[in-house]
């Protein structure tokens, strides 16, 4: 299943290269797709849950941006909807523990700062350089906007994880693949998690 988010990342990268904007592949949603692919390939449950939270949380802002700007493409729509669908499937197997929102927030903030240093200010990828268009008049400095969006992201990630956890709690040991069934790397990752507890 990891091939699908990896393919979504690849198609989107090719789309950006053709458009002359390859740095836009640095947006969180695309990094989430390739991270989810690595998580699914390795079966490492935390590496599944963090990008899943990013993809679930990012669906609403992406939809708003698409409607507000009127800018989209078939590849963009397929990339985001496909990523969302794989995220739901992945979390239905891995389950949500209730402790993923903080690592997801930390990774988001760190990646945002990395993006700030390696991308052009004009692109404003991950809103790392300036407030989202339309919000400039509400803040006298970027750090004020950054702080508010970080707090809101923390709340939103927590709520998304709470909802996902209610729908998809972590599977019990007896719900994992039996000895008569091929055990996936994902199941091995969950078993290793439980052995540490």
Question: Which features characterize this protein?
Answer:
mainly alpha, 197 residues
Largest sheet: none
User: Which series of helices and strands comes N to C?
Assistant: HHHHHHH
- Number-wise, the strands total 0
Tally of distinct domains: 1
Give me the number of helical elements.
Answer: 7
Rg over alpha carbons: 18 Å
Multimeric status of the protein:
single chain
List the helices and strands and how they pair.
Layout: H1 3-19, H2 28-42, H3 45-69, H4 74-94, H5 101-118, H6 142-167, H7 185-196
Helix pairs in contact: 1-2, 1-4, 2-3, 2-4, 3-4, 3-5, 3-6, 5-6
Give the gist of this structure.
The protein has 197 residues and is mainly alpha-helical. It has 7 helices and no strands.
What do these coordinates show?
The chain has seven helices and no strands. The relative contact order is 0.14. Helices cover 68% and strands 0% of the residues. It is globular and about 50 Å long. Mean pLDDT is 86; it is low at 174-183. The protein has 197 residues and is an all-alpha fold. It has one domain.
């Amino acid at each position: 299943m990891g091939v699908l988010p990896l393919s979504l990342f690849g198609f989107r990268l090719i789309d950006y290269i053709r458009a002359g904007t390859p740095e836009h592949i640095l947006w969180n949603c695309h990094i989430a797709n390739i991270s989810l692919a690595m998580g699914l390939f390795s079966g490492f449950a935390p590496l599944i849950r963090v990008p899943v939270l990013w993809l679930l949380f990012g669906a609403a802002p992406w939809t708003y941006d698409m409607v507000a700007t009127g800018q989209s493409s078939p590849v963009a729509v397929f990339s985001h909807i496909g990523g969302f669908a794989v995220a739901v499937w992945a979390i239905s197997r891995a389950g949500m523990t209730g402790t993923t929102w903080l690592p997801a927030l930390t990774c988001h903030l760190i990646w945002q700062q990395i993006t700030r240093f390696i991308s052009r200010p004009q692109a404003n990828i991950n809103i790392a350089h300036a407030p989202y268009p339309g919000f400039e008049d509400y803040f006298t400095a970027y750090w004020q906007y950054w702080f508010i969006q970080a707090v809101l992201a923390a709340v939103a990630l927590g709520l998304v994880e709470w909802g996902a956890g209610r729908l998809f709690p972590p599977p019990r040991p007896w719900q994992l693949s039996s000895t008569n069934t091929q055990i996936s790397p994902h199941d091995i990752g969950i078993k290793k998690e439980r052995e540490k507890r």
